[in-house]
């Protein structure tokens, strides 16, 4: 049964992030379902992912990682120590791609000493709809084929770029936690509308579509946000009145402080991990 699997990606963990990546790999035709496998601690979530996408359920196999070229670690960071030692041993000579928040490459190497290379990725939640932004770094220089494995997996979740590991904490503070800041901004815009007399549903739609449209416009125009801001700001107009209020309350410094808090917390978490 294990002989003809020729798995490209074996997922350890079958939670929401694994599901998003597997969906992306299949919908982008990076690989066929039988070139993907997954397993989970109790087996139920892996079984349901396997049934949904027709991928291999690795739990059933004697040596589950035997035919995988790339192992994707998609369990919670605090679950790393619980991995079955036989599974850890089976990562010998494999490429490991970890999405575990806060787990440094050196720590991952301690866990998988015989792996051929390790990649650390910080994805974000829009990955679940193929609109993610991931940053990654690798322990050793990637070979051409390992680079392809990384590129294909991350492209299936959205955009990606390589950074130095020393930048992972600030990356976490920007793109990792960033979606939450945007959700908070949308909620604040919605509340502004409600306070101005709109119904919740109307204010929610206006706020969401405005952020979505503005982001898409910016992405398409490929200019700085400041230049688009200036284009819609007429002297003495409504937008200028709002921007002056933001400036008076030092909106940028506030966001900068929030990013710095996230960065410092990321450093702390990496030390705990
Ligand atoms: N969600 C995000 O936006 C986001 C962003 C950046 C990074 N991440 C990272 O993504 C990772 C996964 O997050 P998630 O939300 O997908 O987690 P999750 O839904 O909790 O799923 C974790 C999976 O790991 C499995 N697992 C746990 N211990 C295991 C073991 N010893 N052996 C084999 N499988 C084991 C679990 O098995 P059972 O199903 O049997 O419990 C479960 O299927 C985390 O490390 C997180 O830091 C997430």
| Biggest sheet descriptor | 8 strands, mixed
Number of domains: 2
- Percent of residues in helices: 40-55%
Radius of gyration: 22 Å
Order of helical and strand elements: EHEHEEHEHEEHEHHHHHH
- Global outline: elongated
Count of helix runs: 11
Describe this structure in words.
It is a single chain. This protein is an alpha/beta fold and 273 residues long. It has 2 domains: 9-164, Rossmann fold, CATH 3.40.50; 176-272, ProC C-terminal domain-like fold (Orthogonal Bundle). Helix content is 49%, strand content 13%. Strands 3-2-1-4-5-6-7-8 form an 8-stranded mixed β-sheet, with helices on both faces. Helix 6 packs across helix 11. Mean pLDDT is 93; it is low at 1-5. The protein binds NADP nicotinamide-adenine-dinucleotide phosphate. NADP nicotinamide-adenine-dinucleotide phosphate is lined by residues 12-18, 39-42, 45, 74-77, 79, 82-83, 99-101, 123-125, 176. The site of NADP nicotinamide-adenine-dinucleotide phosphate has 26 residues, from helix 1.
Write the layout of secondary structure elements.
Layout: E1 9-12, H1 16-27, E2 36-39, H2 44-53, E3 56-57, E4 70-73, H3 85-89, E5 95-98, H4 105-111, E6 117-122, E7 132-138, H5 144-155, E8 158-162, H6 168-176, H7 178-195, H8 200-221, H9 225-231, H10 238-248, H11 251-272
Parallel strand pairs: 1-2, 1-4, 2-3, 4-5, 5-6, 7-8
Antiparallel strand pairs: 6-7
Bound molecules: NADP nicotinamide-adenine-dinucleotide phosphate.
